[in-house]
């Protein structure tokens, strides 16, 4: 057993021993060997763990072990709590990320579905239009005739935009000529002979002019509505 000083138990032990000695001395007619005020100092300086009875040593050791166990348990609880909080934080972050990704995936799927639906509608609309060659040639055409042809050749969702441009450019006159620039026809092509790419009868056949106009608008602006947006901003296309 190591000789470790333990103040509390040493004082108690020394005080008890000294008190017993004092009582015995008085009974024998003697005088106490030391003043009471020096008991604690003497005990603190001289009393060792080995001098304390075995029962009290066990109590000291048990109390020390209990304190250590309590401290370790407290530290373990704190570590467990911190670990649980960190796990909860990481799980919450993971859940939030998963929810965000799921929302983005849904939005993308909806966007693609809408785009597909739109493209299918456009294909269906274009497939239902007539080609310029399907119209019989006439000696002349009224505005109503030209508009009726355009309605059958231009996709339904693009007709109003196409009509807006033609109305501004030529008021549906397929023989309209700009005396200063030489622009010609429904779309005021400049120069007019560019429309020969759609047919040799570009000067007299509004269907040929409509065919060329659609090709030009689709090629340069993506659609008649794209061309109309540009026209509104610039007053030309």
Characterization of this structure:
Helix 1 packs across helix 2 (39-46) and helix 5 (159-170) packs across helix 7 (224-234). The chain has helices at residues 7-27, 39-46, 54-127, 143-153, 159-170, 206-221, 224-234. Helices cover 65% and strands 0% of the residues. It starts with 6 loop residues before the first helix and ends with a helix. The protein is rod-shaped and about 135 Å long. It is mainly α and 237 residues long.
Could you give the distance between the termini?
107 Å
State the shape.
Answer: rod-shaped
The share of residues in extended strands comes to: under 5%
- Spell the H/E element sequence: HHHHHHH
**How many separate helices?**
7
What is the helix content?
Answer: 55-70%
Number of strands: 0
Task: Give the C-alpha Rg.
Answer: 53 Å
Give me the secondary-structure category: mainly alpha
Mean pLDDT: 80
Largest sheet: none
- Poorly predicted regions: 1-28
Describe the structure concisely for a colleague:
With about 240 residues, this protein is an all-alpha fold.
